Each structure stands twice: as C-alpha cells, then as structure tokens.
Amino acid sequence: MNLKTVYTILRKELLETLRDKRTLIAMIGIPVILYPLLFLVSTQVIMIQQGRIDERDSRIVLTGKPSEQLNQWLEKIEKVKIIQSENPTGDLLAGDIHAMVSTAENPADILAQLGTAEVKIEYDSTAPDSNKARQRINKALKEESKKILQTRLETAGLKEEFTKPLAIQNENLAPPQKQTGSLLGTILPMIMIIMLGTGAFYPAIDVTAGEKERGTFETLLSTPTAKSEIVCGKFLTVFILSLITGLLSLGSMVLCLMFQLSQMAGAAGDAQFNLAAFQLSAANILTIFIILIPLAFFICSVMMSIALFARNFKEAQNYVTPFFMVIILPGVAAGLPGMELTRTTMFIPITNVALLFKELLMGTASPEAIVSVFITTAVYAMMALTIAVWIFQKEDIILSEEKGLPITLNRSAFIPRPTPTPGMAIMFFAMAFLLLFYVGTYVQTRNIITGSFITQWGLFFLPILTLLWFTKIDIKKTLSLKTPRTTALIATILMAAAMLVLGHQYTTWQGNFIKPPQEYAEMMKTLFENTTPAKLIVLLLAIALSPAVCEEVLFRGVILSGLRSRCSVKLSIIATGILFGLMHIYISQIIPTALLGIVITYLVLRSGSIFTGILFHLLNNSIAVLFATGYFPKTIFTFVENYEQTYFPTWLTLTALLLLTTGIALLELTKQKNDFPIQG
Amino acid sequence: MIQVTNLTKTFTQSRGRTIKAVQDATFSVEKGEIFGLLGPNGAGKTTLLRMLGTIITPTSGQCTMAGIRSDESPEEVRRQIGFLSGNTKLYRRLTAREVLQYFGRLYGMADDLIAHRTEELADMLDMKDFLDRRCDSFSTGQEQRVSIARVILHDPAILILDEPTLGLDIMTCRTILDFILEAKKRGHCIIFSTHYMTEAELLCDRIGFIYSGRLMAIGTQPELYQQTQTNNLKDAFLQMADQDQQRQATL
After folding, report:
1. Which residue among A221, A223, A413 places its CB closest to the CB of B107?
2. Distance (Å) from the alpha carbon of B186 to chain A's nearest alpha carbon
3. What pTM was estimated for this model as a whole?
4. Do the chains contact at B55 and A395, CB–CB below 8 Å?
5. What pLDDT, in 10s, does the model give residues A258-293?
6. For the domain B2-88+157-250, what is the CATH code?
7. Chain A: nearest CA to B160, how far in angstroms?
8. What are B42-68's pLDDT values in tens digits?
9. What ipTM describes this predicted complex?
10. Chain B residue numbers touching A9 (CB-CB < 8 A)
11. How many folded domains does chain A comprise?
12. What gap in Å lies between CA A599 and CA A496, rounded to an integer?
C-alpha cells in the first residue's frame, strides 16, 4: 500500500465532502449551533414559564357545604382569590378557575370533637395554573393542621415527640462525582454514539454510493490505485469527519449540560447535582477519547460497508438508517439502571463502550475493563474494515448498476490461492477471538478441562480447517506442513528451555506493577490440586497438547501466512506475536504471551515448519503443568521451588540467554533459501 | 501493444443462471493503430473494454497490455492505459484543474509536471475558459474535453475509449475524432468502440465486429467488404449478424 496515494485520496475526498453542504450541516451545524440552541432555548422557556405561573393569582371556588372556618383559612393564603361560579366544574376544566375546595361537614364542629376534618381539593393536573393552586392550598392547610395539632398536644400535656416515635434519616454516601457521573453517564454515551454516527452518515454514503451515483467510480478504478488504497483513503475521510463531529458534540454537550444542570440546581435549590464536585481528570478525558477512536472506526467502517451495496445516495440512506437505529439501541440499553461491565457485556459491541463511558464518568472503571473494551472494540473495528475491503474487491457490487445485493457464498465463487490474504488472516483472528469469548469462556467456566478441549478443537481447529477448505486455500502451504530439519528441532528445544527461564524473570518483574486477578489465580490452584497420574495425563492433553496444536494452526499457520503474503518478515513476526498475546485477555498475560509468540513465530518462519512451533508450545505448556502439579522431577531442580515469587539466580538467566542465542545461531546458520516459505 | 487471448466473461445471475457477456475473444492491436470495436448495444463491447482496462477480471483467458499481463499486475497495466467510457465521469464538486491534479497524482506524476501538462492540454483541447470552474457547471462537450485531458494526462501508451462520441454535438465530436487521429500519429495504440458505422469507416485501421458476446470477424475495411460482398460497414455488419443468428439457430 502506497501511503502517498492514500493521502492523495484522503485529501481529495475531504475537499469534496467539505464542499457538500449536507456534510457541513451535519458535522458543524448540528453539534455547534443546533444543540446548544435547543438546550438553552428550552431551559429559558421553562424558567420563564415557571416564573409567570408564580406571579399569577390562583382563582378558587368554594363548593359543597358553606363553612366559615374553611373560608377563613383560604382567605389568608397569598395569591389565592376566592370567587363565585355558577358551573365550577365546567369553569375548572375550561381553565377559568384553578381549583375547587369543599368539606362534607363543618370542620369547626369536627375539630371541636378532636376528629379529622376532610377537605377536598379538585384540580386539573394538566393545567399548570391549577397545579400551582393545589400546591398553594395544600401548603397553607398543612400549616393549619400543624397548628391545630400543636394546640391539641398542649391541651393533652404531650410533647411533640409523641407523634414521632421514629426519626428516619437518609444519607447518600455516593461521592458527588459518582452521582453526577451516573446521571451524565446515562445520557452522554448515547449522544456520542448518535453524534459519531451522524458525523459518519453523509460522508460514508457520499464516498461510496454517492460516487457510484455520480459515475466517477470507474474513473477512479481505471487509475493504477490498489483497492486497499482506495478503501483506506475513503475510510480515513469518513473516520476523520466522524471523529470531528463526535468531539465537537462532546464538547458542546458537556458545556450545555453543565449549564443546564447548574440552572436546574439553582432553581430547585437542590444539592443533588453537585457540579462543583464533578471533575473529569485529564486521564479520564484521554481515555474517553481513546475509546472513541475504535468506536468511530467501527461505526464508520460498518456504515461504509453497508453504503457500498447501494447504487445511489437515496438507496444508501435506506440501508444505513436502520443500522443507525440499531447502534443507538445498545447505547440506550447501557443507560438502564443495573447495567454494568461484566464478562458478557464487555464483548457486546457499542454497549461495552457506552458502559465503559458511564463507569469512567462515575470514576469506577478498572484498568482491566478499559483494556478489554479497547481490545474488543478494536477487533470489531478491524473486522468491519476488512469486510469493507473485501466488499470493495467484489466488482459486481462496486459496478452494480441495476442489480440489488449480488453477494454469493458459493464455494465455486472462490479463487484457489496458496495462502490467505492479510485481511483474511485478521478475519480468522477476529472469528477465533469472538468464538473464544462468547462460547469458550462459557464452556470453560462450566468445566475447565472439557471446556479447553472444546475451545481448542471445536472453536479453533475445526472452523479454521473448514474455512480454509471452503475458500480453497492451500492447507499444506498455509500451515507450513513440512518436516523440520534436526538442527531446527535442537534449536527449538534450546529456545523453549531458555524462554521458560526468561519468561519467569519477566513475569516476576512485571508482578511489581500488574497482579494477575484473584479469580484467575484461584482457578489455576483448584485445577492443579490433588493431581493423580491419570489426571495429569488428561491435564497435559487439555492444557499442553491441544493448545500446542490448535493455537499454532491458528497463529503460526493461518495468521502468519496471511500476514506474510503482504507484510515484511519483521512486521509479520511482531504482529503475529502481538495478536497471540491479545488472545489471552488478562492484562497480566498479554505481554508475556506476546513475547513468547514473537519467539515462536520467528522460529516457525526460520525453520519453515509449523512442527517446531508445536514442539515449542508443547514443551512450554507441559513443563508449566508439571511444575504446577508438582510432578516436575524435584531432584533436578530443587532450588526452583523457592522461586515462586522471586527472580531466578543470575547464572540461570545467563545460561538461558546463552541457550537462546545458540538456538538463534543454529537457525541462522542452517537456514535455507526457501525458509521464508510464504510469499504473496 | 494489446494481446488478447480467449478472453471470456460470464456473469452469474440470480438462481445460478449464467450469461456469457464476452466469449473467447482473441485479437491484437499494434502501436500506432486504431482498432474499432463495432456492435449494437449489449453486444459486449463495454465488458470487453472493461476487461482490457482491468476494471473487471475475466472469467478465463488472458490479456497482455504493453507487455504486462493483466492478471499478474493489473496496477501496472492501468499505468500504461488511458480509459474512457460513459461511466468514467468527473468529480462535480472539483474544478477541472483539481480533477486533473488528482488523477495526475494517482498516476504518480510530480506536481509541476501535472501543472505543465494541464496547461499544454488546455491549449490543445481548448479548455482555458473553464479550467477553474467546477465540473458540475460544464456542458456535455466541455466535460468530454476534460475527460479526454484526464485520459492522456499521463501520456499512456494505450488508449481505451468506449463510445467516446456518444451524445456529443458535432463540434465536440470533431474535436474528439481529430484528437484520436492525432493520438495515432503520435504512436499511441488505440482501441475504441462505437455503434456509429461512419465514425468507424473514417478512423479505423482494423475493425472487429462483436455480436452477442462473440467477435464474429476481424479485419481491415476492404477485407470485411470482400468477406461479405458488400461495400459499407453497415451492410457488412448486418449480413454477418444475420449469418451468426442462423448459425446459432441450427446449433
């Protein structure tokens, strides 16, 4: 991919989109002008209206039995006028009078007998003036009631406490930031999703279906530009515009909301919205911004993919609008009380971001949650973009003039190829990742051993081989199924031994900053407790052999060969390693496994055979299992047991480094020309 | 310059039915030659030219453009050709100059070279007056002239022109036809399609008749007249089309 070409396309698309009024209105007009205007105007109107009602007199009518006492009470109330009416009910509903007050008996008689006098207020709840009248009468009569009670208590020689056996106090201990954050957290995420969507909406359609409609697509396709360059250029345009809209509206929303809440707080004299105590730290704002990036990425690429199917602007609007509504729903759901980030909600696209947003505003988000949401959202985003590139390769969709949705999943439509493309590699990763989290974690919580078998063979191995077969990809070549040389096998053993020591040193050091979660440590402990020799064999099969085969097929097979078909050796090694690390979602595991992944990837590329990777993986995991179960021959390494939480001695580290270098040297010295087997 | 061997394109319709838009096309075009592709609407002209332009991939068969195989490096092939069809319009919100600059950059040209070429072509195609106006204000003739400038901006060896004179007034038509003859003189290899027989008679060194996806005949004008015992392209084409229909009916 030529970045200069991508930049040329991006620049032109931006110029062209910015010359379109629709985009400008959606991008700048709505967040910067319309929203503040709506907020301020509505707040002002409410306040003015409220003030007017306060100023007006309440006109009331006394109905039922005439009562001197009631008359007296009512006459004393400020801004209440007693008037006469022929048809009080009609007048009330017409809004000419505001309330009717009546009693069944004469209150004075009942009060004399220490009874309860009933006073009825009839009003119209839909008329603001009538509500005000009710409030005024209620307040005054309650005062009267209190006075009468006072007199009665004094007469009986009782204290006021007599009527209040219990005094209940409610105290809200939630910090003000949490209270305000919870309130903002229900509204802001949804608005952000809507605004990112609004910002992406017109550009996404304009650069795809719009270009088709204007008949310039074929002009662009006739230039020496790769499809991926076109998609990237166009996608970046949509992405930038969406992010700008998102940020503009975030700023404008927060300002408006702060302003409105402070006015409401002032008006109600209520301490519920304590904005002075509400602070977003710079780190929080940065996190919100960082999370917005994959979210915008996801929304933009899905919108673009959908719009690509349409032949013209109008049709694209019809396709994209439902998607827009669909993405608002998870945002709304996240605002519901009781919804929070759990192992399940963490993987629901859009919802997870909305929930994280809420937790960040409340100040309760954990680093685990931030990283997990970021990774999952990034995975979804990459998947959506890969789909966009794939759709772009389909000439019948890009050039469709009269057909509708010409996608077929006929096996015959696939062209046989030696290895997957990088896009396919990422799709394979995304698929495995999602299966692992939706199905894998579920089966593993039920039973970790059978769960591990199901995950490795059922979720990784089988789907991958099926897909490779279905898309007519050369399995032997993709998976590097080649007998390794003896030197490569020796190098594998040396390097695996070295990495066990170095890995331990690294994890010990990392333990200073990141502790593995408690639940994980406990799960491992119960798993390895009381291991009989029979159980040991099962454990080795489930935790050592299965991952060694299945994860290697996924990472050092499909993903590596896919990346390698386009990327340089270095990039392929590092990217495969990082993806391998990301698959182990616990933060404490990501970096060590990524490092391990990089070494294994290098080994497989150099040896040209996946079997070296499988052997390495098998040695690594089996020895870990042997240690954890206590089956490791203690006579050889008695000292090891003392090093559970501390570093190995320096001489061991140095030996490990020596072994690693020897392994690398062996590989480099005996490498053959075709060792980097997979070429595009 | 252009070598086409057994080029075939099949489109899959709904319910698995297939349509052979182009069948087994084999021909070649040399440097400095104008090759005309003649046929009615729907004959497969556009599909064939789109395959040559690597806009779509052939179902089977091969084409080599300027010595480069289309299936191996389509991007390199596109660098060698200028492609014009009814579907290659201009960006309406950009000015003619901006359009040329954009495409020049996509062809990897340096900015000063693009500027220089733009002035040169503005002179040649008489576009000075509207060079800095937005394309949405252009008449069909002005638009076509900018399109022609876009096609030859990077001085490609091969020009693929799909019905370049369709819907144009006679003045612009003349500009385009003059341009094609001029390009031939400069040694470009040109393949163009039309259904105006007179245009083909005037311009083409060799002609290919295409009908329901098949190239029925290829030859110079005298060769085609002799083959069909006629004295103009229209009659020659109609006779071949009738024969072809009969042949298909008997099969």
Report:
1. A223
2. 22
3. 0.67
4. yes
5. 776 666 655 544 444 555 555 566 777 777 777 788
6. 3.40.50.300
7. 10
8. 888 989 999 999 988 898 999 999 999
9. 0.92
10. 106
11. 3
12. 9
